Hints:
By secondary structure, the protein is of the alpha+beta class. The strands form seven sheets. Strands 1, 3, 4, 6, 9 and 11 form a six-stranded antiparallel β-sheet that branches. Strands 13, 15, 16, 19, 20 and 21 form a six-stranded mixed β-sheet that branches. Strands 2-5-10-7-8 form a five-stranded antiparallel β-sheet. The protein is globular, with a radius of gyration of 27 Å. The two termini are 35 Å apart. The model is unreliable at 1-28 (pLDDT under 50).
Amino acid sequence: MNRRRTALLSLAGLLASALTALPAAPAGAEEAEQVRNGTFDTTTDPWWASAGVTTGLSEGRLCADVPGGTAHRWDAAVGQNDITLVKGESYRFTFTASGSPAGHVVRAIVGLSVTPYDTYFEMTPQLGVFGDTYSYTFTSPVDTSQGQVGLQLGGSADPWRFCVDDVSLLGGVAPEPYEPDTGPRVRVNQVAYLPSGPKNATLVTEATGKLPWRLKDADGRVVRQGTTVPRGVDGSSGQNVHSVDFGAHRQRGTGYTLVVDGETSRPFDIDASAYERLRLDSAKYYYTQRSGIEIRDDLRPGYARPAGHVDVAPNRGDGEVPCQPGVCDYTLDVTGGWYDAGDHGKYVVNGGISTWEVLSTYERARHARTGQADRLGDGTLDIPESGNGVPDILDEARWELEFLLKMQVPEGEPLAGMAHHKIHDEQWTGLPLLPSDDPQRRELHPPSTAATLNLAATAAQAARLYRSYDREFAARTLAAARTAWTAALAHPQEYASPDDGTGGGAYPDDQVGDEFYWAAAELYLTTGERQFERYILNSPVHTADIFGPLGFDWSRTAAAGRLDLATVPNALPGRDKVRSSVVKGADRYLATLRAHPYGMPYAPEDHVYDWGSSHQVLNNAVVLATAHDLTGAAKYRDGALQSMDYILGRNALNISYVTGYGEVNAHNQHSRWYARQLDPALPNPPAGTLSGGPNSSIQDPYAQSKLQGCVGQFCFIDDIQSWSTNEHTVNWNAALTRMASFVADQG
């Protein structure tokens, strides 16, 4: 499913220049220079400079005096347009540059000089004063004669001097194959195994027979040994692999390693404490995703930032947002909520499933036999509301719920009671860009049936969970849920356009029977009313097989209703069949996990990994965890626990997909404010942030330049430019929050 599209802004959108098309070279042509006058022997033409940047020749170089006080990289730049790029052709981008004083960072890009200003390649070297040479190779994902080479120099408080020479974009070079560093061939959960839980690893090897393995403690002593189980070639990675089972060792400790076939794994613990931290870190992620509030350094050291989109320049703000032209004639106050991902958009259709799973993390902790609701209680998440007597996880979810309620169409308007699908910038913004610095006009997008039912479902769920803490808020959410339900019944086919992807993700969904089922389930669980009971029992979704290979997601929401009907106390007729259907789904995922050499409950057809595959692994694990809650059977608990191993390092790339967890972890997720890879003054994503993970469709140009022909698990790169494999989102982290809490409870 094409979840979203994120373009990186190039400088041409800020510059007025005539474009002259150049003939494109045929693919596979001999090496050919695309840059004109990259040596600056007698002139700087045809290079341009942005307003405020003074350029000239100095000792055969182009030198630019860069003004201070600019906010963004692209506020000051030099570059050249009319660059020809050929799809599939490899290019070597080279330049020699210096900065005075030393330490400034330049953003060097090759991209598109006209809308939508895509960036096809970028690097951000830190400059010295003497002049170093930088050289990079990439493959163009497009054919265009409107390309651009740009050197972006802004973002400094103080003025500085930049000099560049020998700029070259040489086409027809031999492509540099991308070879990820996968480290030792023994793949383990790099964080921790539970003492009483399963402990499995995967060995990549050419050997076909059994091999001896040894488990060593932190002092190097062998504490357990055995032999591997050959598994043959794993289709999701193309690797010949063996499995290692060392679950018999239950001694707590840190710094364990597994030695087999001459390789030593990365270290790991046998202990539950890491999951207590992850339970909280994964939920703390949401505070720094908040819109409309200052992020405090005392609560999140290193992540402080001004409030975003609160009508303070340069923001246009979210206090009085109009619709897209022709959609409506009113404005709404839609301040607050969570930024959906690495951009500045806010989406009802994705915010809904995210809020449900965060709330369900708490609701599960209240009802499940191993649940520990106090671990998510007041004061646990270090947020501004801590200390108010309300569980922190409910306070955090309320920040998004208040926004969702604001997105409802007012009384007296056409489509009253429906919910606007989303609100975001009119055009895509570039990276990096703090929310408070976003200058774009904000727009409400048309209401949709899917968004309206997301609002109905989550607001109904909220009504029962907040009732004992704030009866007035609970009554307001229930009233909004009823209104949304009635509006959706009256307008069952208002679909979001799949082409509405400028400035924010489209999130199209024209199959909303699952959303109707989910909303009816939540309304029934909260009210017990017959009208909702009848709708559930008459829905074809109620008896459908909904636990497919890809798992549930923002566009596949039936499982949200089914899981809650199975676990939240209720008197639905035939509820035993509902619970049995969850267990049956868990049996399927358990069979998938046992057959998979990497031990995960996710095996899409033909090994085609979907966008956000890491959270789909986790959501399938949620079904396993729920089956354990329903039956008490250890096999489901163990399957859910083992699923976390893949996320935390037991995978083909030998990487943890959670920032701050594991010796090697994804930490360059696509983001406009967790953008340390582009700006050393900004942080990486906070600990506990889940990366989307392998995505076979590799929709972004950067991934396309590196990962063509990738197989399953190898369709991933930890780079801020790879928005299709390495973004973070509120719904992906919700799956991590849910599973981290379950695993911690088992410890």
